[in-house]
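for the recovery benchmark. tokens below, seq after
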């Protein structure tokens, strides 16, 4: 049986969270039997097997949690920048509501829980806004630093001074997999890294 009730939206804080409960004597409990909700015409319906007490209840909406991930550095092979993957898949909602995702930064925006965007060399604050279908929102900020490979002195260019810095550590082992002096990623700093950067000198 489909049972529908009109309601006065002025009596509720957030009509979008309304549910229609039905008291079922065999279970001895109120059960959520909401089948449809027409927000425009203010009518809520339930599918039930018998007529017994009904109650229109406004549920408190709990806020989602936005998680943009950890701040990170991304190497760029050239001055044009790098492709950066933004991942909000660990964001959550305590009510299990469907979520929308919006990413914004000074020069652009994107949507979706996981998306890849182009960012130029520099430091970028990327703000993630997560929203549920009942008006709840949460934000988180991710700092992405896009660094130019071979730009060891941080002046935004690859010059002879960068080559000199690599030569100053010639025949040393890289300190870790992300050692910026080990530009070709072979674990050792040597003439091969110098040659790699010579090919990328800024005109």
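predicted aa per position
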């Amino acid at each position: 049986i489909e049972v529908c009730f009109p309601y006065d939206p002025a009596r509720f804080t957030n009509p979008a969270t309304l549910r229609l409960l039905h008291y079922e004597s065999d279970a001895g409990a109120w059960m959520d039997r909401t089948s449809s909700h027409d927000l425009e015409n203010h009518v809520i319906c339930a599918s039930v097997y018998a007529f017994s007490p009904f109650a229109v209840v406004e549920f408190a909406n709990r806020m989602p949690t936005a998680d943009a991930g950890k701040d990170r550095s991304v190497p760029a092979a050239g001055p044009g920048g790098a492709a950066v993957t933004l991942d909000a898949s660990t964001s959550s909602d305590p009510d299990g509501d469907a979520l929308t995702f919006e990413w914004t930064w000074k020069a652009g925006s994107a949507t979706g829980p996981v998306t890849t965007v182009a960012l130029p060399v520099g430091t970028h604050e990327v703000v993630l806004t997560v929203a549920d279908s009942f008006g709840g929102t949460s934000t988180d900020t991710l700092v992405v630093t896009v660094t130019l490979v071979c730009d060891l002195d941080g002046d935004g260019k690859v010059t002879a001074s960068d080559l000199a810095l690599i030569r100053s550590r010639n025949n040393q082992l890289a300190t870790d997999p992300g050692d910026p002096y080990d530009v070709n990623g072979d674990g050792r700093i040597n003439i091969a890294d110098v040659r790699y950067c010579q090919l990328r000198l800024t005109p």
